[in-house]
Every structure is written in structure tokens, then in C-alpha cells.
Amino acid sequence: MELGADGVGGQIEPAAISGEVVDDLLTGEIGDGVGAFMDAVAVDTDGVDSAIADKEREVFADQARQSGKPEQIVEKMVEGRMRKFYEEVVLLKQSFVMDPDNTIEQVLANASKELGTPVEIVGFQRVALGEGVEKKEEDFAAEVAAATGQA
Fold first, then answer.
1. What spatial distance separates the first Cα and last Cα of the chain, rounded to whole Å?
2. Confidence (pTM)
3. What is the pLDDT of residue 12?
4. CA-based Rg of the chain, rounded to a whole angstrom?
């Protein structure tokens, strides 16, 4: 993986059916790991659509209330489930592939310390194989008939 003069880097994972182009920072190990995160929808929790987060919070609260627990306990249960939700959909909260004991956020913090300068991922774009490609519908029998003059 190479960074351009502007500090922007990108990588397509050859062994995956999706690739990511990550803006403004990537070092080798971080770039190798980013391609493995298929469920990330945002870099950080602020990037998650508030409507989606609110809906998840509602569902978790309803489920917790059905257990008959007091409201204080329900609130703690919801916060725990929201933490888990963010671990699944926020890139920085996900485990780092090369070192699953650390999150991407921790890896970036360590890289910042080591390099003596802030290191951050400010965006990413998922590109899936075949995405945006329209498949032409063909009728093979009609094609053969037209080619042989039987149409």
C-alpha cells in the first residue's frame, strides 16, 4: 500500500469480494486490516446515522423492558447493547485483524504515539464486486432462433 504525496491512500483487498478505499491515512498493517470489516458503516460513532442508532436503541429498550427489569437496569442493558452495536458497525470500534486484542482505535492511538503525530482514518468507501453493474437480460433461445433465421 502506498500513500500519495497528499497523504491519501487506498487499497483493494485481492482475496475479498469487496474492497475499500480509505481517505487520508493508511499504513501497511492498518490498510491490510480494513478490508476485513464487512459491516462497518461509519468511521466513528458520530458517523452512524442517528435514525438508525435511535431505532436500535428503541428495539433494545423494548426488549429489555419485556424482561420486567427496573428502568435503571433497562437503561444499563440498553447502553451495553448499544456498545455492542457500535462495535459491529463502527470501524474504529472493531477488532484489528492483525491483533484482535486491540481495536482499530487503539492501533491508531499506538501509531500516533510511535510516529509522534496524529494518525486518523477520516473516511472509507466500500466497493463491492459487481456493484452498480446492470446485468443485461438475454433470452438464449430467441438469440439462437434469430441467428439461424427461425425467428
1. 54
2. 0.63
3. 42
4. 22
